[in-house]
Design brief:
Blueprint (H helix, E strand, L loop, with lengths): L6 H13 L13 H6 L2 E2 L2 E11 L6 E13 L6 E12 L25 E11 L5 E8 L20 E9 L5 E12 L5 E16 L2 E10 L15 E13 L4 E14 L8 E13 L2 E10 L1 E2 L3 E2 L25 E12 L2 E18 L2 E17 L4 E12 L8 H4 L4 E11 L1
Antiparallel strand pairs: 1-3, 2-3, 2-21, 3-4, 4-5, 5-6, 6-7, 7-8, 8-9, 9-10, 10-11, 11-12, 12-13, 13-14, 14-17, 15-16, 17-18, 18-19, 19-20, 20-21
InterPro entries: Alginate_export_dom (IPR025388), Porin_dom_sf (IPR023614)
Pfam family, one: Alginate_exp
Protein name: Alginate export
Length: 427
Protein backbone atom coordinates (compact mmCIF):
# COMPACT_ATOMS: atom_id res chain seq x y z
CA UNK A 1 0.00 0.00 0.00
CA UNK A 2 1.36 3.42 -0.98
CA UNK A 3 1.37 6.35 1.40
CA UNK A 4 2.75 9.88 1.06
CA UNK A 5 5.45 9.00 3.61
CA UNK A 6 6.88 6.54 1.07
CA UNK A 7 7.81 9.35 -1.36
CA UNK A 8 11.33 9.98 0.09
CA UNK A 9 12.23 6.33 -0.48
CA UNK A 10 10.94 6.52 -4.06
CA UNK A 11 12.81 9.78 -4.68
CA UNK A 12 16.07 8.26 -3.36
CA UNK A 13 15.72 5.28 -5.69
CA UNK A 14 15.05 7.44 -8.74
CA UNK A 15 17.87 9.83 -7.88
CA UNK A 16 20.26 6.86 -7.76
CA UNK A 17 19.09 5.71 -11.18
CA UNK A 18 19.61 9.23 -12.53
CA UNK A 19 23.14 9.41 -11.08
CA UNK A 20 24.00 6.12 -12.81
CA UNK A 21 22.86 7.49 -16.15
CA UNK A 22 19.80 5.23 -16.38
CA UNK A 23 17.32 8.09 -16.71
CA UNK A 24 17.14 10.71 -19.42
CA UNK A 25 17.33 14.48 -19.02
CA UNK A 26 14.29 16.63 -18.19
CA UNK A 27 12.26 18.28 -21.01
CA UNK A 28 12.77 21.87 -22.17
CA UNK A 29 11.35 24.43 -19.74
CA UNK A 30 9.50 27.73 -20.19
CA UNK A 31 11.67 30.74 -19.41
CA UNK A 32 9.21 32.56 -17.12
CA UNK A 33 5.86 32.20 -15.40
CA UNK A 34 4.32 34.31 -18.18
CA UNK A 35 5.78 32.03 -20.86
CA UNK A 36 4.53 28.96 -18.98
CA UNK A 37 1.00 30.37 -19.05
CA UNK A 38 0.89 31.59 -22.66
CA UNK A 39 2.66 28.47 -23.96
CA UNK A 40 0.11 26.25 -22.24
CA UNK A 41 -2.96 24.67 -23.79
CA UNK A 42 -6.70 24.68 -23.32
CA UNK A 43 -8.40 21.69 -21.69
CA UNK A 44 -11.95 22.76 -22.48
CA UNK A 45 -15.03 21.33 -24.14
CA UNK A 46 -18.76 21.65 -24.64
CA UNK A 47 -20.88 18.49 -24.69
CA UNK A 48 -24.55 18.86 -25.57
CA UNK A 49 -26.66 15.74 -25.09
CA UNK A 50 -30.19 14.53 -25.55
CA UNK A 51 -31.01 11.34 -23.60
CA UNK A 52 -34.26 9.41 -23.96
CA UNK A 53 -35.28 6.69 -21.50
CA UNK A 54 -38.33 4.42 -21.79
CA UNK A 55 -38.48 2.30 -18.62
CA UNK A 56 -41.10 -0.39 -18.09
CA UNK A 57 -42.01 0.49 -14.48
CA UNK A 58 -42.21 4.29 -14.93
CA UNK A 59 -45.32 6.16 -16.01
CA UNK A 60 -43.42 8.75 -18.02
CA UNK A 61 -40.48 8.68 -20.39
CA UNK A 62 -37.40 10.81 -19.74
CA UNK A 63 -36.37 13.40 -22.33
CA UNK A 64 -33.22 15.02 -21.00
CA UNK A 65 -31.38 17.91 -22.63
CA UNK A 66 -28.16 18.65 -20.75
CA UNK A 67 -25.03 20.68 -21.45
CA UNK A 68 -21.61 19.94 -20.02
CA UNK A 69 -19.15 22.84 -20.03
CA UNK A 70 -15.50 22.29 -19.15
CA UNK A 71 -13.26 25.36 -19.10
CA UNK A 72 -9.63 24.85 -18.26
CA UNK A 73 -5.98 25.60 -18.96
CA UNK A 74 -2.80 23.57 -18.58
CA UNK A 75 0.41 25.57 -18.32
CA UNK A 76 3.72 24.64 -19.89
CA UNK A 77 6.48 23.43 -17.58
CA UNK A 78 8.45 26.00 -15.55
CA UNK A 79 11.12 24.72 -13.14
CA UNK A 80 9.76 21.23 -13.92
CA UNK A 81 6.32 22.26 -12.68
CA UNK A 82 3.02 22.77 -14.47
CA UNK A 83 -0.49 23.53 -13.24
CA UNK A 84 -3.83 22.36 -14.64
CA UNK A 85 -7.09 24.03 -13.62
CA UNK A 86 -10.52 23.12 -15.00
CA UNK A 87 -14.05 24.17 -14.05
CA UNK A 88 -17.19 22.15 -14.75
CA UNK A 89 -20.80 23.19 -15.18
CA UNK A 90 -23.71 20.85 -15.92
CA UNK A 91 -26.87 22.66 -16.97
CA UNK A 92 -30.38 21.26 -17.47
CA UNK A 93 -31.87 22.78 -20.60
CA UNK A 94 -35.29 21.35 -19.74
CA UNK A 95 -36.98 19.81 -16.69
CA UNK A 96 -38.90 16.98 -18.34
CA UNK A 97 -36.73 14.29 -16.79
CA UNK A 98 -35.41 15.38 -13.41
CA UNK A 99 -37.32 14.72 -10.20
CA UNK A 100 -36.40 17.72 -8.03
CA UNK A 101 -37.91 15.92 -5.07
CA UNK A 102 -35.33 13.17 -5.67
CA UNK A 103 -37.92 10.57 -4.67
CA UNK A 104 -37.77 11.53 -1.00
CA UNK A 105 -41.50 11.97 -0.47
CA UNK A 106 -42.89 10.02 -3.41
CA UNK A 107 -41.66 7.58 -6.05
CA UNK A 108 -40.47 9.42 -9.12
CA UNK A 109 -42.63 8.97 -12.22
CA UNK A 110 -39.55 9.53 -14.37
CA UNK A 111 -36.67 7.18 -15.17
CA UNK A 112 -33.37 8.29 -13.67
CA UNK A 113 -30.99 10.33 -15.81
CA UNK A 114 -28.14 10.77 -13.31
CA UNK A 115 -26.76 14.11 -14.52
CA UNK A 116 -27.46 16.63 -11.74
CA UNK A 117 -26.84 20.34 -12.21
CA UNK A 118 -23.50 21.26 -10.71
CA UNK A 119 -20.83 23.95 -10.89
CA UNK A 120 -17.52 22.89 -9.41
CA UNK A 121 -13.78 22.52 -9.80
CA UNK A 122 -13.37 19.51 -12.03
CA UNK A 123 -9.57 19.31 -11.96
CA UNK A 124 -6.93 21.31 -10.12
CA UNK A 125 -3.50 19.74 -9.81
CA UNK A 126 0.24 20.39 -9.92
CA UNK A 127 2.57 18.21 -11.99
CA UNK A 128 6.23 17.98 -11.01
CA UNK A 129 8.68 16.33 -13.43
CA UNK A 130 12.01 17.26 -11.78
CA UNK A 131 12.82 13.60 -11.25
CA UNK A 132 13.62 12.26 -14.74
CA UNK A 133 11.13 9.85 -16.29
CA UNK A 134 8.85 10.47 -13.34
CA UNK A 135 5.77 12.60 -12.86
CA UNK A 136 4.33 13.54 -9.47
CA UNK A 137 0.76 14.85 -9.58
CA UNK A 138 -0.92 16.40 -6.55
CA UNK A 139 -4.50 17.65 -6.39
CA UNK A 140 -7.89 16.92 -7.92
CA UNK A 141 -7.46 14.72 -10.97
CA UNK A 142 -9.02 12.26 -13.38
CA UNK A 143 -7.63 8.72 -13.27
CA UNK A 144 -8.07 6.08 -15.97
CA UNK A 145 -6.31 2.73 -15.64
CA UNK A 146 -6.37 -0.11 -18.19
CA UNK A 147 -9.94 -0.49 -19.50
CA UNK A 148 -11.31 1.52 -16.49
CA UNK A 149 -12.95 -1.64 -15.05
CA UNK A 150 -11.41 -0.91 -11.63
CA UNK A 151 -10.48 2.80 -11.75
CA UNK A 152 -11.98 5.38 -14.08
CA UNK A 153 -13.65 8.76 -14.50
CA UNK A 154 -17.14 7.64 -15.67
CA UNK A 155 -16.51 9.77 -18.74
CA UNK A 156 -19.88 8.94 -20.34
CA UNK A 157 -21.89 10.81 -17.72
CA UNK A 158 -21.89 14.58 -17.92
CA UNK A 159 -20.22 14.90 -14.51
CA UNK A 160 -16.88 13.12 -14.20
CA UNK A 161 -15.64 11.09 -11.27
CA UNK A 162 -12.53 12.80 -9.87
CA UNK A 163 -10.06 11.97 -7.10
CA UNK A 164 -8.24 14.24 -4.63
CA UNK A 165 -4.78 12.96 -3.86
CA UNK A 166 -1.31 12.07 -5.09
CA UNK A 167 -0.19 10.06 -8.15
CA UNK A 168 3.42 9.11 -8.88
CA UNK A 169 4.17 7.63 -12.32
CA UNK A 170 7.59 6.35 -13.38
CA UNK A 171 8.93 5.08 -16.73
CA UNK A 172 12.52 4.27 -15.70
CA UNK A 173 12.30 0.65 -16.81
CA UNK A 174 12.14 -0.01 -20.54
CA UNK A 175 8.61 -0.56 -21.93
CA UNK A 176 7.21 -0.27 -18.40
CA UNK A 177 5.13 2.02 -16.22
CA UNK A 178 5.03 1.99 -12.42
CA UNK A 179 2.23 3.94 -10.75
CA UNK A 180 1.51 4.55 -7.08
CA UNK A 181 -1.43 6.61 -5.85
CA UNK A 182 -3.06 7.72 -2.61
CA UNK A 183 -6.44 9.53 -2.57
CA UNK A 184 -8.49 10.89 0.31
CA UNK A 185 -11.57 12.44 -1.34
CA UNK A 186 -13.79 11.45 -4.22
CA UNK A 187 -16.47 13.27 -6.20
CA UNK A 188 -18.76 10.76 -7.84
CA UNK A 189 -20.52 11.32 -11.15
CA UNK A 190 -23.69 12.08 -9.19
CA UNK A 191 -21.93 15.14 -7.73
CA UNK A 192 -21.79 13.57 -4.26
CA UNK A 193 -18.55 13.95 -2.30
CA UNK A 194 -17.16 11.10 -0.23
CA UNK A 195 -14.20 10.76 2.09
CA UNK A 196 -12.08 7.82 1.09
CA UNK A 197 -8.75 6.16 1.78
CA UNK A 198 -7.83 4.69 -1.56
CA UNK A 199 -4.39 3.39 -2.55
CA UNK A 200 -3.16 2.11 -5.92
CA UNK A 201 -0.11 0.05 -6.89
CA UNK A 202 -0.01 -0.57 -10.64
CA UNK A 203 2.77 -2.03 -12.81
CA UNK A 204 2.51 -2.48 -16.58
CA UNK A 205 5.02 -4.00 -19.01
CA UNK A 206 4.62 -3.98 -22.79
CA UNK A 207 5.76 -7.43 -23.95
CA UNK A 208 4.78 -6.76 -27.57
CA UNK A 209 4.34 -3.46 -29.45
CA UNK A 210 0.54 -3.67 -28.99
CA UNK A 211 0.20 -5.92 -25.93
CA UNK A 212 1.00 -5.58 -22.24
CA UNK A 213 0.85 -7.42 -18.92
CA UNK A 214 -0.34 -5.54 -15.85
CA UNK A 215 -0.12 -6.42 -12.16
CA UNK A 216 -2.21 -4.31 -9.80
CA UNK A 217 -3.37 -3.83 -6.26
CA UNK A 218 -6.28 -1.57 -5.26
CA UNK A 219 -6.84 -0.92 -1.55
CA UNK A 220 -10.11 0.76 -0.48
CA UNK A 221 -10.25 1.51 3.24
CA UNK A 222 -13.78 2.92 3.05
CA UNK A 223 -16.71 1.44 4.95
CA UNK A 224 -19.35 3.20 2.84
CA UNK A 225 -18.55 3.15 -0.87
CA UNK A 226 -22.03 4.30 -1.80
CA UNK A 227 -23.03 0.87 -3.08
CA UNK A 228 -25.84 -1.22 -1.64
CA UNK A 229 -23.81 -4.41 -1.34
CA UNK A 230 -25.59 -5.89 1.68
CA UNK A 231 -22.58 -5.61 4.00
CA UNK A 232 -22.04 -2.92 6.62
CA UNK A 233 -18.35 -2.29 5.83
CA UNK A 234 -17.30 -2.35 2.18
CA UNK A 235 -13.53 -1.93 2.75
CA UNK A 236 -11.70 -4.34 0.47
CA UNK A 237 -8.58 -4.95 -1.60
CA UNK A 238 -8.19 -6.26 -5.15
CA UNK A 239 -5.05 -8.05 -6.32
CA UNK A 240 -4.94 -8.98 -9.98
CA UNK A 241 -3.05 -9.73 -13.19
CA UNK A 242 -4.08 -8.76 -16.72
CA UNK A 243 -2.81 -9.66 -20.22
CA UNK A 244 -4.32 -7.55 -22.98
CA UNK A 245 -3.64 -6.32 -26.50
CA UNK A 246 -3.13 -7.30 -30.11
CA UNK A 247 -0.70 -9.62 -31.90
CA UNK A 248 0.00 -8.75 -35.53
CA UNK A 249 -0.38 -11.65 -37.96
CA UNK A 250 0.57 -9.56 -41.01
CA UNK A 251 0.13 -5.88 -41.94
CA UNK A 252 -3.65 -6.34 -42.30
CA UNK A 253 -4.65 -9.00 -39.74
CA UNK A 254 -4.18 -9.18 -35.97
CA UNK A 255 -5.26 -11.36 -33.05
CA UNK A 256 -6.98 -9.64 -30.11
CA UNK A 257 -6.73 -11.17 -26.65
CA UNK A 258 -7.55 -10.47 -23.01
CA UNK A 259 -6.92 -12.69 -19.99
CA UNK A 260 -7.44 -11.28 -16.49
CA UNK A 261 -7.92 -12.57 -12.97
CA UNK A 262 -8.33 -10.74 -9.65
CA UNK A 263 -9.24 -11.61 -6.08
CA UNK A 264 -11.27 -9.32 -3.81
CA UNK A 265 -11.02 -9.81 -0.05
CA UNK A 266 -11.80 -7.87 3.12
CA UNK A 267 -9.44 -5.07 4.11
CA UNK A 268 -9.04 -2.85 7.17
CA UNK A 269 -12.13 -4.12 8.99
CA UNK A 270 -14.21 -4.93 5.93
CA UNK A 271 -16.96 -7.52 6.22
CA UNK A 272 -15.81 -11.14 6.33
CA UNK A 273 -18.34 -11.86 3.58
CA UNK A 274 -16.12 -9.95 1.13
CA UNK A 275 -14.37 -12.81 -0.62
CA UNK A 276 -14.92 -13.11 -4.38
CA UNK A 277 -13.02 -13.46 -7.63
CA UNK A 278 -13.03 -11.67 -10.98
CA UNK A 279 -12.07 -13.10 -14.35
CA UNK A 280 -12.19 -12.04 -17.96
CA UNK A 281 -11.19 -13.92 -21.07
CA UNK A 282 -11.63 -12.72 -24.63
CA UNK A 283 -10.46 -13.46 -28.14
CA UNK A 284 -10.98 -11.56 -31.34
CA UNK A 285 -9.74 -10.84 -34.83
CA UNK A 286 -8.95 -7.50 -36.43
CA UNK A 287 -8.68 -6.72 -40.12
CA UNK A 288 -7.42 -3.26 -41.06
CA UNK A 289 -9.96 -0.89 -39.41
CA UNK A 290 -12.45 -3.66 -38.55
CA UNK A 291 -12.58 -5.95 -35.53
CA UNK A 292 -14.82 -8.56 -33.89
CA UNK A 293 -14.37 -10.36 -30.59
CA UNK A 294 -16.07 -12.60 -28.03
CA UNK A 295 -15.57 -12.10 -24.28
CA UNK A 296 -16.70 -13.50 -20.97
CA UNK A 297 -16.46 -11.46 -17.79
CA UNK A 298 -17.30 -13.02 -14.42
CA UNK A 299 -17.81 -11.08 -11.19
CA UNK A 300 -18.01 -13.95 -8.75
CA UNK A 301 -20.41 -14.49 -5.88
CA UNK A 302 -19.60 -15.59 -2.34
CA UNK A 303 -22.42 -18.07 -1.78
CA UNK A 304 -25.05 -15.47 -2.69
CA UNK A 305 -24.04 -13.26 0.24
CA UNK A 306 -21.73 -10.87 -1.56
CA UNK A 307 -20.40 -10.35 -5.08
CA UNK A 308 -17.31 -8.74 -6.60
CA UNK A 309 -17.69 -4.93 -6.70
CA UNK A 310 -15.79 -2.17 -8.52
CA UNK A 311 -16.91 1.10 -6.87
CA UNK A 312 -14.10 3.23 -8.37
CA UNK A 313 -14.70 2.08 -11.94
CA UNK A 314 -16.16 3.65 -15.04
CA UNK A 315 -19.14 1.31 -15.00
CA UNK A 316 -20.99 2.47 -18.12
CA UNK A 317 -19.16 0.25 -20.67
CA UNK A 318 -19.70 -2.92 -18.61
CA UNK A 319 -22.75 -5.23 -18.61
CA UNK A 320 -24.21 -3.07 -21.36
CA UNK A 321 -24.68 0.66 -21.80
CA UNK A 322 -28.11 0.82 -20.15
CA UNK A 323 -26.40 0.86 -16.70
CA UNK A 324 -28.70 -1.73 -15.17
CA UNK A 325 -26.01 -3.31 -12.98
CA UNK A 326 -23.93 -0.53 -11.43
CA UNK A 327 -23.90 -2.70 -8.30
CA UNK A 328 -23.17 -6.39 -8.88
CA UNK A 329 -26.10 -8.52 -7.60
CA UNK A 330 -25.15 -10.72 -4.65
CA UNK A 331 -25.56 -13.76 -6.90
CA UNK A 332 -22.71 -12.45 -9.06
CA UNK A 333 -22.54 -11.67 -12.76
CA UNK A 334 -21.54 -13.66 -15.84
CA UNK A 335 -21.46 -11.41 -18.90
CA UNK A 336 -20.95 -13.17 -22.24
CA UNK A 337 -20.77 -10.61 -25.01
CA UNK A 338 -19.88 -10.09 -28.65
CA UNK A 339 -18.36 -6.83 -29.90
CA UNK A 340 -18.04 -5.57 -33.46
CA UNK A 341 -16.63 -2.26 -34.60
CA UNK A 342 -14.75 -0.23 -37.15
CA UNK A 343 -13.36 3.16 -38.05
CA UNK A 344 -14.10 4.02 -41.68
CA UNK A 345 -12.87 7.43 -42.76
CA UNK A 346 -14.51 9.76 -40.21
CA UNK A 347 -17.13 7.18 -39.14
CA UNK A 348 -16.79 5.22 -35.88
CA UNK A 349 -19.05 2.14 -35.61
CA UNK A 350 -19.52 0.00 -32.51
CA UNK A 351 -22.04 -2.67 -31.53
CA UNK A 352 -22.33 -5.10 -28.61
CA UNK A 353 -24.69 -7.89 -27.60
CA UNK A 354 -24.68 -9.10 -23.97
CA UNK A 355 -26.14 -12.16 -22.32
CA UNK A 356 -26.23 -11.55 -18.55
CA UNK A 357 -26.61 -14.31 -15.97
CA UNK A 358 -25.84 -15.07 -12.33
CA UNK A 359 -22.69 -16.74 -11.05
CA UNK A 360 -24.90 -18.73 -8.67
CA UNK A 361 -28.61 -19.55 -8.96
CA UNK A 362 -31.13 -17.20 -7.37
CA UNK A 363 -34.64 -17.73 -6.12
CA UNK A 364 -37.65 -16.56 -8.11
CA UNK A 365 -41.36 -16.56 -7.21
CA UNK A 366 -41.75 -19.71 -9.30
CA UNK A 367 -38.49 -21.51 -8.54
CA UNK A 368 -34.84 -20.81 -9.32
CA UNK A 369 -33.24 -18.90 -12.15
CA UNK A 370 -29.91 -17.72 -13.44
CA UNK A 371 -30.57 -15.36 -16.37
CA UNK A 372 -30.78 -11.63 -15.68
CA UNK A 373 -31.43 -10.58 -19.23
CA UNK A 374 -29.83 -9.55 -22.49
CA UNK A 375 -28.88 -6.24 -24.05
CA UNK A 376 -28.20 -4.82 -27.50
CA UNK A 377 -25.99 -1.71 -27.82
CA UNK A 378 -25.34 0.31 -30.98
CA UNK A 379 -23.22 3.40 -31.60
CA UNK A 380 -22.45 5.51 -34.65
CA UNK A 381 -20.19 8.57 -34.49
CA UNK A 382 -18.87 10.99 -37.09
CA UNK A 383 -15.67 12.96 -36.52
CA UNK A 384 -16.18 16.20 -38.45
CA UNK A 385 -12.84 17.63 -37.28
CA UNK A 386 -10.33 16.59 -34.61
CA UNK A 387 -12.26 18.88 -32.27
CA UNK A 388 -15.89 18.23 -33.25
CA UNK A 389 -17.81 14.93 -33.06
CA UNK A 390 -21.45 13.89 -33.34
CA UNK A 391 -22.65 10.56 -31.94
CA UNK A 392 -25.84 8.47 -31.89
CA UNK A 393 -26.18 5.66 -29.33
CA UNK A 394 -28.85 3.10 -28.50
CA UNK A 395 -29.26 0.52 -25.71
CA UNK A 396 -32.08 -1.99 -25.20
CA UNK A 397 -32.18 -4.21 -22.10
CA UNK A 398 -34.71 -7.02 -21.78
CA UNK A 399 -35.12 -9.11 -18.64
CA UNK A 400 -35.10 -12.92 -18.62
CA UNK A 401 -35.64 -14.80 -15.32
CA UNK A 402 -37.16 -12.67 -12.54
CA UNK A 403 -34.61 -11.90 -9.85
CA UNK A 404 -36.16 -11.97 -6.38
CA UNK A 405 -37.00 -14.17 -3.41
CA UNK A 406 -40.72 -13.51 -3.13
CA UNK A 407 -41.73 -10.31 -4.87
CA UNK A 408 -40.96 -9.82 -8.54
CA UNK A 409 -42.31 -6.28 -8.49
CA UNK A 410 -39.85 -5.02 -5.90
CA UNK A 411 -36.66 -6.74 -7.04
CA UNK A 412 -36.81 -7.32 -10.80
CA UNK A 413 -34.87 -5.35 -13.41
CA UNK A 414 -37.30 -3.50 -15.66
CA UNK A 415 -37.06 -3.57 -19.43
CA UNK A 416 -35.39 -0.37 -20.61
CA UNK A 417 -34.72 1.38 -23.90
CA UNK A 418 -32.29 4.29 -23.96
CA UNK A 419 -30.97 6.47 -26.75
CA UNK A 420 -28.54 9.38 -26.85
CA UNK A 421 -27.63 12.12 -29.30
CA UNK A 422 -24.37 13.87 -28.39
CA UNK A 423 -22.46 16.79 -29.86
CA UNK A 424 -18.92 17.26 -28.55
CA UNK A 425 -16.62 20.19 -29.23
CA UNK A 426 -13.16 20.32 -27.67
CA UNK A 427 -10.94 23.37 -27.69
Amino acid sequence: MFRARHLPVLYSLLASLHACGVLAAAPVQAQSVYDAIVQGKSVSQFRLRYEYVDQENKADDANAFTLQTLLGWQTASYFDTSITAQLINISHLNQDFYDNNLGKNHPSQLPTVPDPEITDINQLYIDYAGIPKTNVRLGRQIIRLDNTRFVGDIVFRQSSQVFDGLTVTNHALSNSEILFGHYEHLRQSTGKYRNTNFDIAHFSYKYLPKASVTAYGYFIDQADTGQNTGVADNAHKDIGLRFDGAIDINPDWRWLHTVEYARQTAYQGGSREIDASYSKIGLGLGYQQWFARVDQEVLGSHDGLYAFQTPMATLHPFQGWADMFSVTPRQGMVDRFVTFGSTVDQWIILSEWHHLSADTHFQTPTGTGEDYGHELDLSLAYQFTPQFQAKLEYAQFREDDILGATSAASTRKPDVTKSWVTLLYQF
